[in-house]
Sequence to fold (150 residues):
Amino acid sequence: MTQFSHINKDGKARMVDVSEKEPMIREATAEGFIRLHSKTLELIRENQMKKGDVLAVAEIAGVQAAKETSRLIPLCHPLMINLAEVVASLTDEGVRVRSTVRCTGNTGVEMEALTAVSVALLTVYDMCKAVDKEMEIGRISLVEKIKKAL
Fold:
């Protein structure tokens, strides 16, 4: 059996112990993109999608996802998030989603920012799947990670 950092000597999974790390202000920004047909973009722009305002719902879904990340990613620490901001914007080819998450704590918020972007993009997909069968989600990445002393 391969030994991973999250598996202890008894072979049981465990979270990384961050209790010795200094609490800091931690911030992460992530972004991603979903490619859509021009017809789909026009429906979003005119707020004509049957499920409602695609960009607003995607942003709310992303904020909710950031708050629930530790419930989705098994070894991710639950964090008291100070900020979860998600912005979904139309481009000529689709929707770009950018998320910034901030907390004061012992571990970073990269997973929360990436989860927010991923779920926001999946929400766009869900809301548009009836009219666009060729959507493509991609280019999800961590853009920036910052930590500052208190």
User: Anything to note?
Assistant: The beta strands are 24-35, 81-90, 94-105, 136-149. Residues 110-128 form the longest helix (19 residues). The longest strand covers residues 136-149. The chain is about 30% helix and 30% strand.
